[in-house]
Amino acid sequence: MQMKVQAMALLVAAGLLAALVALPVLGEDLTAQEVLNRTRAAWQGESFHGVVSLERILSGQTESHVLEVWTLGDDYALLRVLEPEIDAGSGYLQVKDDLWYYSPLVGTSIKLPAIALADAIFGSGPSLQDLSHGTLSDDYNVTVEATESGYFLVLIPHPDAPVVYGKLEIRVTGDFVLEEVVYYDQRGEILRTAVFSNSVKIGDASFPTEILIEDASGDRTTQRIENPEFNLTLDPSFFSLDTLEEVQ
Q: What are the structural domain ranges in the chain?
């Protein structure tokens, strides 16, 4: 009987040890801000370029768009619509706190309020900020908990932050790859949920190339990122109205 009790105790101890080994090491090694910074670095990089396809299901109808995206840090982003043909050539430019929209049909760029970065680009699905990988900004206070597979972060905006979200809840793997982001409004209601999958290796890091976004209304968008490139040599001068309005 005593040997059975000892054996059970050893099994329990082994299980606890395995669970502890599986947990990421927070402690004195990584603060909540450092976890967020590493997550942002894995998602955004110093600079980024890729082609993004969006397939949106709205009230049973499917709509598709293809965009090309360039970013440089948190301050610069250029998004240009490639498809469908009727929208081709239109796009958005962010330079620090300034934001513009351009359509060949209008023929000139229109300045938008910076808060529009949080708006869904086609009325539902990802926002401009999501597409330019700028959602995980420094406008939030962050707390973190270790989970069995990685980290659970809660981001609360600073009182004077120019953001529309009341809270973000983020799950990432132990190597800082995004798994899920839940967006809340100022009243604590869920606006939309994004689930990340199909990670590919780029250098030493993993990067999710498919995102399923579900809005509170039930509309769903599948976002696929093709040929992602990081840490390109991009000059801030590339992010200009001339580039935005350039005929393709």
A: 26-244
| Fold classified for 26-244 | outer membrane lipoprotein receptor (LolB), chain A (2.50.20)
Confidence band of 163 (pLDDT split at 50, 70, 90): confident
Res. 248 pLDDT band, cuts 50 70 90: low
Cα–Cα distance measured from residue 142 to residue 149, given in angstroms and rounded to the nearest whole number: 19
| Beta-strand relationship, 47-58 and 91-95 | unpaired
- Among 72, 54, 169, 70, CA closest to 120: 54
Tell me how far apart the alpha carbons of residues 46 and 104 are, in angstroms, rounded to a whole number: 30
What pLDDT is recorded for position 211?
97
Residue type, 81: V
The model carries a pTM of 0.84
